[in-house]
Each structure stands twice: as structure tokens, then as C-alpha cells.
């Protein structure tokens, strides 16, 4: 999936705006390799000039629980919740 995002970005021509893509993607599902449910977050890495993924780690306060909020920082900034990535 990650390779697909990076290849599509390389093939895009004549963008109406220039600069890094302002896009984030979240995928969740069962990992057959880990035998567990996982959530992955994909966003643009400016230093590497490509999309990178990160697996969401379990929430510290609730071992084994995965929690992820999507949206702008102001929309998901909730007191008491901390980043799980």
C-alpha cells in the first residue's frame, strides 16, 4: 500500500499547487503476521520526500487498547489524551 502511494505521487504531473502533499491516511484491520488488530497511520515525510507509515501503539493507560483520532489538531486535541504514535 505504501509503495502505491509513493509511486502515484511520483507520477502526478501539473499539480495546481506546489509543495508537499497535505494528506494523511488511516487504515485499520487484522494483521495475520502479528495475529492482532492494528491501526496504521500514513503521512508525508518531508525529510525523506515520501509517504511513511507508523503503527499506532497501544494506549498506555489501557494496555492492549488501540485508540486513534482523525482530524485537525484543534478538533482532536482533548485534555487527558496523549499521542499514541
* Distance between the amino and carboxyl termini: 19 Å
Beta-strand content estimate: 25-35%
The strand order across the widest sheet is 1-2-3
How do the SSEs run, as a string of H and E? HEEEH
Number of helices: 2
Largest sheet: 3 strands, antiparallel
> How would you classify the quaternary structure?
single chain
Give the % helix.
Answer: 10-25%
Uncertain runs are none
Instruction: Compute the CA-based radius of gyration.
Output: 15 Å
Judged by helices, strands and strand pairing, the structural class is: alpha+beta
Shape: globular
Q: What is the average of the pLDDT values?
A: 79
Strands, total number: 3
What does this structure look like?
The chain has 85 residues and is of the alpha+beta class. It has a domain at 2-57. Helices cover 16% and strands 28% of the residues. It has two helices and three strands. It has helices at residues 2-11, 73-76, and strands at residues 24-31, 36-45, 50-55. It has a three-stranded antiparallel sheet with strand order 1-2-3. The chain is globular, with a radius of gyration of 15 Å. It starts with a helix and ends in a 9-residue tail after the last helix. The mean pLDDT is 79.
Notable characteristics:
85 residues, alpha+beta, 3 strands
What topology does this entry show?
Elements: H1 2-11, E1 24-31, E2 36-45, E3 50-55, H2 73-76
Concise synopsis of the structure shown:
This protein is α+β, with helices and mostly antiparallel strands and 85 residues long. The protein contains two helices and three strands; from the N terminus they run αβββα.
